[in-house]
Write a structure and sequence with these properties.
The structure holds 2 protein chains of 2 kinds. Chain A is an alpha/beta fold. Chain A is built from 21 helices and 16 strands. In chain A, strand 3 and strand 4 form a beta hairpin. Chain B has 2 domains: 64 residues; 75 residues, Glutaredoxin (3-Layer(aba) Sandwich), CATH 3.40.30.10. Chain B is built from 7 helices and 4 strands. Chain B is elongated, with a radius of gyration of 18 Å. Classes of the chains: A alpha/beta, B alpha+beta. Chains A and B meet through helix 1, helix 11, strand 12, strand 16 and helix 17 of A and helix 2, helix 4 and helix 5 of B. The complex binds flavin mononucleotide (FMN), iron/sulfur cluster and FE2/S2 (inorganic) cluster. The site of flavin mononucleotide has 21 residues of chain A, from strand 9 and helix 20.
């Protein structure tokens, strides 16, 4: 009989709740009992509240047990979990768990399924098909395929990827670059991290396709330093990729310096060049003059992962998911005070309520939900009474909110929205690159004024001042850091005036 | 902690690290990370060594070092706890946790608590990196256990 395959995630979130200890306990217990197992360290399936989620491969499929602690391991063996035995931590087939079964996993189809650093496993699960097809096509046709798919950038701005690539391709001949934006600084987001740790070759393949499409043979992956696990996995994956000689495309990894603004594309380019991450004035856009002044495609990790699927399965396949001008799927991330936190990949058009209630199961604390912040620290606070909005770029914008990178943070009724508004200014003050006055000075002033509001000092005129400051920041900032900080501030004030002493 | 950053070989070591990066000025941030990982912080001599090897001014390097939150100009505490202070962790009580940590460590020389803004563990907050190890669902009690462990290692 061949060894029984047991999967214990190596994903950082899983490790943070004891996955390494569980893996060690399983190895030890199996050897003690003389049971032949093959322990695979996979990525996470994204059901983070069940981590460490241990899976056992059976003829019927993979069975899930979780959350498993090292202490549970002997009892799992006593219950013969390694041959599918029943146990109080059992959930049946992983892919039949409703949270998972209701998803549309395209970009995350392999994440949590394969051994992240096994290229043969990657290929056996559909990897490399996109690149192989792309390499049979002329660059113009690859760009056309991406345009037809309707793919928009997943980093937050939602800019059509096909247009960006077309612009880069049309520049005069010479050196070009692909830059993967893995800075993922938004609170409430972890999808880029999960993909890099669970399916790193997908990012490299997407970059290689982008390279072929725009005529670049060098790519950089800019990963934030707060992600040591992802950095290690990507470094390893890059070595394996280069050694396998799959294409001429070379990838270099650059680690950030703990600056949120370096997620903004021009600041990121400055940082990759070894400089202060100060935002560049636009124009020129990076597709025309980017890294070292050369045409550069800057794309988010998830945009590049989607590219693999589009090339492998065709533009029409991808386009069929989604609604309106938001095509394909989005990796939503449920975070904060949420009962079932994790990653939900769904076609655009799912409602915020479905995500928060059906998937998320409401708050972890059991307290009533009061607000949701969507789209990261620059995104709006949405009251719990307004969850029926469809998750699509335009539908959210119409309500004064934004999708951003897909993060959804739940807050219970103990949240003080005036404090959250103050924090938005504070965060902007800490992370501003300092290039323009409305952001650099406005954020500091905003925080000071909010302190007065919170202290109950002359609220009417101080709140009027907050609104003025917001207007100046919105109109006069060079980038969305200063330009969008007013969004969380004003949405909090609009929907929760009582927290600001306004009736 | 002995002041290893100031050991006499620092200049030489910086030159080696720069050479490993092809003495490319665009690799400056990688180089700064590498030196800091070895020495704990970036002493004046480190900036001097890197400036010479990359043939850029020390002022330019200083500008970069001060822009990024990661880089240290002073020796770090023996143990560093980077506690997430961003929104998803605020939603599950990270502000209270930070106040607890501050009070608990008021006279600790060996443990430093620093703010970070998101560690990508937002579904399992409050999160922290404890000497580089990611932690989840922290409470005052679990944080106290972590501090006690670190103090024992001290
Ligand atoms: C303050 C700020 C922070 C940003 N952070 C990120 C980030 O962490 N990751 C990301 O992909 N895009 C981020 N962006 C958006 C990028 O500027 C850019 O639009 C994106 O990387 C383009 O890739 P895409 O078209 O594939 O989305 C940020 C923008 C701003 C203004
Ligand atoms: S808005 Fe803020 S972060 Fe953006 S360029 Fe201006 S100062 Fe820099
Ligand atoms: S907000 Fe704390 S880990 Fe993301």
């Amino acid at each position: 009989m061949s060894a029984i395959r047991i999967f214990v995630p190596i994903d950082a979130a899983a490790q943070s709740v004891g996955a390494n200890e569980v893996a060690a306990a399983i190895a030890m217990e199996a050897s003690k009992r003389g049971i032949d197992i093959e322990l695979v360290r996979n990525g996470s399936r994204g059901m983070l509240w069940l981590e460490p989620l241990v899976e056992v491969e059976t003829d019927a499929g993979r069975l899930a047990y979780g959350p498993v602690s090292a202490e549970d391991v002997p009892s799992l063996f006593d219950a013969s979990f390694h041959s599918g035995g029943e146990h109080r931590l059992g959930h049946g087939l992983t892919e039949s768990i409703p949270y998972f079964a209701k998803q549309e996993r395209l970009s995350f189809a392999r994440c949590g399924v394969i051994d992240p650093l096994n290229l043969a496993d990657y290929e056996a699960h559909g990897g490399l098909a996109g690149l192989r097809r792309a390499l049979t096509m002329v660059p113009r046709d690859v760009v056309a395929e991406i345009s037809e798919s309707g793919l928009r950038g997943r980093g937050g701005a939602g800019f059509p990827t096909g247009i960006k690539w077309k612009t880069a391709l049309e520049q005069p001949a010479g050196q070009r670059y692909v830059c993967a934006n893995a800075d993922e600084g938004d609170s409430g987001t972890f999808a880029d991290r999960m993909l890099m740790e669970g399916d790193p070759f997908a990012l490299i393949e997407g970059m290689a396709i982008a390279g072929h499409a725009i005529g670049a043979d060098i790519g950089y992956i800019y990963i934030r330093s707060e992600y040591p696990h992802a950095i290690a996995t990507m470094r390893h994956a890059t070595e394996i990729w280069h050694a396998a000689g799959l294409s001429d495309f070379r990838v270099e990894i650059r680690v950030g310096g703990g600056a949120y603004i370096c997620g903004e594309e021009s600041s990121m380019l400055e940082s990759i060049e070894g400089k202060r991450g100060q935002v560049r004035a636009k124009p020129p856009i990076p597709a025309i003059s980017g890294l070292f002044g050369k045409p550069t495609a800057v794309n988010n990790v998830l945009t590049l992962a989607a590219v693999c699927d589009i090339l492998a399965k065709g533009a029409a396949y991808y386009r069929d998911f989604g609604m309106g001008r938001s095509r394909g799927t989005q990796a939503f991330q449920l975070a904060g005070d949420v009962a079932r936190g994790g990653l939900v990949e769904k076609a655009f058009g799912v409602t915020l309520r479905e995500l928060v209630e059906d998937f998320g199961g409401g708050t972890r604390s059991g307290k009533p939900l009061r607000a949701v912040q969507a789209g990261g620290p620059l995104g709006a606070y949405i009251p719990a009474t307004a969850l029926d909005v469809e998750m699509d770029y335009e539908a959210l914008a119409a309500t004064g909110a934004m999708l951003g990178h897909g993060g959804i943070v739940l807050f219970n009724d103990s949240v003080d929205m005036a404090k959250q508004a103050r924090f938005a200014f504070e965060f902007c003050a800490i992370e501003s690159c300092g290039k323009c006055t409305p952001c650099r000075i406005g954020a500091v002033r905003g925080k000071e004024v909010m302190d007065k509001v919170i202290a109950g000092e002359d609220r009417t005129s101080n709140l009027a001042l907050v609104e003025d400051l917001c207007e100046i920041m919105t109109d006069g900032s060079l980038c969305a850091m200063g330009g969008l900080t007013p969004m969380p501030v004003l949405s909090a004030l609009r929907h929760f005036p009582e927290d600001f002493g306004r009736e | 902690m002995s002041d290893i950053a100031a050991l006499p070989d620092l200049l030489e070591r910086c030159r080696e690290i720069c050479a490993q990066h092809g003495n490319r000025p665009d690799a400056l941030i990688e180089i700064l990370h590498a030196v800091q990982a070895e020495r704990g912080y970036l002493a004046d001599d480190a900036l001097k060594g890197i400036a010479q090897a990359l043939n850029i001014s020390r002022a330019e390097i200083y500008g970069v070092v001060t822009f990024y939150h990661d880089f240290r100009r002073e020796p770090p505490p023996r143990h560093v706890v980077k506690l997430c202070r961003a929104e998803a962790c605020q939603a599950v009580g990270s502000d209270e946790l930070a106040r607890h940590a501050e009070a608990r460590l008021a006279d600790s020389a060996s443990i430093g608590v620093e703010a970070v803004y998101c560690l990508g563990n937002c579904a399992l907050g409050p999160a922290a990196l404890v000497d580089g190890k990611l932690k989840a669902r922290l409470t005052a009690a679990s944080l106290d256990v972590i501090f006690a462990d670190l103090e024992r290692q001290a």
